[in-house]
Amino acid sequence: MPMHRQLHQGKIVVVHAPNLPASCNHRQSLELQAKHSPSISVELNRTNTTASCNPSQRRRQQRASLHRQESWFRHSMPPAINRDFESLEHLQTQDTGNGLDEQLAASLSGKLPVLSHTSIHLNSANSNLGFIDSDTPNTPITPPSSSVAGTLSSCQPPAEPGSRHRSSRNRKDSRASILSNAARGLRMTTSFLRRKRKEYEDDDEEPPNFGSYASTDDEKRIIVLNGSQPTKYCNNRISTAKYNVLTFIPSFLFEQFRRYSNIFFLLIALLQQIPDVSPTGRYTTLVPLVFILSVSAIKEIIEDVKRHRADNEINHRLIERLENGAWTTVRWSELTVGDIIKVVIDTFFPADLILLSSSEPQGMCFIETANLDGETNLKIRQGMTSTAKLLDTKDLTQLQGKIECELPNRLLYEFNGVLKEYGKPLVPLGNDQVLQRGAMLRNTAWIFGVVIYSGHETKLMKNSTSAPLKRSTVDKLTNTQILMLFMILITLCITSGLCNLFWTQKHSITDWYLGIGDFVSLSLGYNLLTFFILYNNLIPISLQVTLELVRFLQAIFINYDIEMYHEESNMPASARTSNLNEELGLIKYIFSDKTGTLTRNVMEFKKCSIAKRIYQTEHTPEQSELVQNILRKHESSRDIEEFLVLLSVCHTVIPEKKEDGSIIYHAASPDERALVDGARKFGYIFDTRTPEYVEINALGKRLRYEVLNVLEFTSSRKRMSIIVRTPGGRIKLFTKGADSVIYERLSPRDQSYRESTLQHLEEFASEGLRTLCLAVADIDDEVYEEWTQTHHKASIALQYRESKLEDSCNLIETNLRLLGATAIEDKLQEGVPETIAALLEAGIYIWVLTGDKQETAINIGYSCKLISHNMDILILNEGSLDATRDAVLRHVDEFKTTSTKDANVALVIDGKTLKYALTCDLRGDFQELCLVCRVVICCRVSPIQKAEVVDMVTQSTKAVTLAIGDGANDVAMIQKASVGIGISGVEGLQAACASDYSIAQFRFLRRLILVHGAWNYARISKLILYSFYKNVCLYVIELWFALYSGWSGQILFERWTIGLYNVVFTAMPPFAIGLFEKFCTAETMLKYPLLYKPSQNAKLFNVRVFWIWIFNALLHSVFLFWLPLCAFETEAIWSDGKTSDYLMLGNMVYTYVIVTVCLKAGLITSSWTWLTHAAIWGSILLWFLFVVIYSHIWPSLNFASNFAGMDSQLLSTPVFWLALILVPITSLLIDVICKLIHNTVFKTLTDAVRESEIQRNDPSQVMEESRSSMIWTRDRVRKGSNLRRDTSIQGRV
């Protein structure tokens, strides 16, 4: 019945116009409104301007106008009313017979007007409204000057004559009113579905423009079947290698010289080529640099050769291709888009294919996608009905048409396309028809498919991208200190250059025999270059390569740790990156998923709630009370039967029958398998699936349900539905999903089990069980026919297919009838409580980010000892931004009064409240609240919210964070955290593939962090500090020697000994430290997690420690230079008549430096192995062997003439041997004294435990003393804070 809106004094009033002819069109409605409002006139003029446009443009403009008006109208309403528009449960009228507008007015004003038949016309391609009257045109709502939300409540429509009588009659005959209203709702829904379908058609005919964006053929791929392609597509050859023969040198050099250190040393090597500038020769830097680059190049070549071999093996695999009506065997690399190929059982698909037909009925096939997502469960794919009959070569060659699909992308689980056979209707193509490269054909003899994406355009190759680059905290700090050293180097160069200039000017005339009056000697620029080359080795040239090799070997240690090997799944730990090894020793926050990470993700059906009663499974179906109620024809037997039918029908599980008659279920998720198993335990056995129907054995009775549509689960929908035709011929919608989405779609008339089911859901959740709600709806044939056409239009849309399909699903999933709920148990993994307790004791904060219900998450928190019984729980469940702000600020103020940084409180927050808490104006306060709490649990959160929480903590605290998860929904937070850990579990390898490290069980995280993390941090820290120490110790001596050489830049050491210092003579001790150093055994580290705190607090490597080591090196260099200088102050003459010169002094000093730095390595070593001994003593011995050999090279080889006979001079001097003992001991005496004082007076917990291990005593007594001291200190702090709080309260009073 047509209606109009009239404007009275700037207010919109919805009135009913019974006498207006039904043919009243949209323009008449506008004219009526335009008399009262200029704004309506403007809209009318805009409408008139469209009259001259072509019909398609006019339709688009009208639709855009309607969208704008609807958007304004809905956003003007309060949230409660806006939510009413989102659900069709308000579309069916109540027992009072009131229509939608009465309910709207009642929501606004708290009253029901007496008007009985009104409606509001809204139309949107993106809404899920289904209440458009079939007899009324769309009437736009034009925004007036005042708000609708503020006026509707005050508007009282005039009562029609006889309205009271009609209301009374409706109360008397409520049943007739309900039936009448239901029929009217049906009529309106079918009209809306037709209009919706028309909009989808218009969208595909006229895709929208976005700025300069216009839909063209370039935005979709067109594949001609059995014909030449309109575009040349890439071939199917793949290459995962980084280099080839031509690109290796430029690419490798580009990668290497992206590092600042390599650029620095290349600059030094180039400067040394300038004549009369380099004091160390032309090749002393170039040769070590080339050696280091060669080591890296050999490593890259070895790895890349392996990639080339793997690529060649794949590219040379054989496949059958249809060519000119015959099958030809070709290589994979020869395939291209449009080829029709045959794939046989247990064979990988060579490219992304569209399934045409198979050896199975209806074009079905089974595939395994373990290479794509790690899931070993078989998945079903089904060809189109129109191509399923193409079973021989002749039929395939006669296939004519084209496929239109989206351009290549990396979305593994999404595909949009259309098959257009000539002379036949369009057929939608979705992910169910796609066979992706990397998957394997299983349980199917053969399939025919057409290639749509090939080579590097396949989804597998599109997803083979590297993880985001992460740098460790130690690396960042090291780079900062290198910059500081570089600034010191520049300062030393300028100072030395100026000193040289002044000294030369002073002595150029008096000391004329030196020949220092030339331009070069007096040039400050030349002198700066000379000293820049002389001092460049303050920055160790070999540090980067040493770090890379050590980290690589540390990663191998992780991979081969038998204690982190999971025998059940045959899954070892895997370090997918090695540059974050030391970061594992700095973890402050852990963000963990729950399902599959803390729990096993092996689901077991435990309980269900049906018709206000809870049922449990028994050993046999006959023993269960549920089955007995069915057999006794209990009053709830109908609901029970529908409940079990839903469990056994509404899923995508694939049954596999074994020879012994047993059935194995292959499911995409453990939840689905558990639900089908639950139905089997009650005697409803699902055993047959085809693309067209499913069959179940219901307590001995065979039932076949024709599958009409499957509305799949998505993370946004949070539900899965199936539309079936029952054996009785009725159409039913079965749906299961989260209670939050099921309850809002229940029919208003369905009030039977709502409250009792909610109570049962809370009871299940409190037991730590996972819950789902089940509901059903009867669908009229007429509504289904209209909807299926609308759904088909959405399924073949190339533009916005996902949103249109979701929109279409929302249209049918309404007016549901609640059947009950299920409860599934997901037990904790082995060792989870012990692991969490150990990590908490180590001072690590643990946050749980899960999509489960709040009660379930809290219960799991207690079970895994994340929440203790003496811990207060702070729950934030707010429905608006203002309420969230008030709650957060209130709690922040409460914690501020206690002045404590670590409250014994667990914060629990749901996803909706978290959305408000992460807004810009509240983010800081929420962050402050979270950081005070000991434990944080976020429930019902989406993957993007997980990533936002991790990013918030990482950015605000600057602490090292770790995220751990097992599913694809955890990838975002894994990549956001400083360190990402993936668990290779039941949900596949998506998380593991995106992680930095992967483990098989959560309990292995304890060893990975507390043992490998702490060890690697200590090893890398000592390696870096020692590398800088030994370089400063030697090369600063050149500065001291400049005091005696007139700042001339003369070197004290032989030039090649300078270049080989880092590469040969002191190369092994850093490796020994980086690989074998450990301050406590693994067993002790695991038993006493407090030992993790020194590494967590970065006590071993920070700015202060770094510069203490630099100062220590400077002090040693003073002893190592002036003590030998004083010892050789008296001239000595050898038997060959030679006297000692500067080079003799330099070699003596060089010997003492090597001995001292090697002994220093031993002094800082906590764990001695035979490899450590070999590295330290072997380095000293290597120098003496070098002296002996190098002294006899000249004149056999034309270099090292100044080193000839050096061994006899050096080794025959008693003073040299005496100083060899005294100088290193004197240099290290201060270090030994400081170490003794530290280990005696300032002994740390780690030192005490290590001493106990050395003495073979039990460290438990030491740990107990430490714990007692910590508890005493904590109690003193808490008492002080409580006293201050009480004092402040009294002051306020």
Overview of the molecule:
- Residues 992-1243 form the P-type ATPase C-terminal domain.
- This protein has 1293 residues and is of the alpha+beta class.
- Helix content is 47%, strand content 16%.
- It is built from 46 helices and 35 strands.
- It has a nine-stranded mixed beta sheet with strand order 16-35-34-33-17-29-32-31-30, sandwiched between helices. A nine-stranded antiparallel beta sheet has the order 19-18-28-27-26-25-24-23-22, sandwiched between helices. The protein has a six-stranded antiparallel beta sheet with strand order 5-4-6-15-7-13.
- A hairpin with a 7-residue loop joins β24 (701-711) and β25.
- The protein is elongated.
- The two termini are 68 Å apart.
- The model is unreliable at 1-53, 66-188, 205-216 and 1287-1293 (pLDDT under 50).
Helical segment count: 46
Share in β-strands: 15-25%
Low-confidence stretches: 1-53, 66-188, 205-216, 1287-1293
Termini Cα gap: 68 Å
Overall 3D geometry?
elongated
Briefly note the structural class of the backbone.
alpha+beta
Mean pLDDT: 78
Helix content: 40-55%
- Kindly report the spatial arrangement of strands forming the biggest sheet: 16-35-34-33-17-29-32-31-30
The radius of gyration is 40 Å
Largest sheet: 9 strands, mixed
Number of strands: 35
GO molecular function: ATP binding; ATP hydrolysis activity; ATPase-coupled intramembrane lipid transporter activity; magnesium ion binding
Transmembrane segments: 482-503, 512-535, 1059-1080, 1101-1122, 1142-1163, 1175-1194, 1214-1234
Binding site for ATP: 593-595, 672, 713, 736, 770, 850-852, 940, 946, 969-970
Binding site for Mg(2+): 593, 595, 966, 970
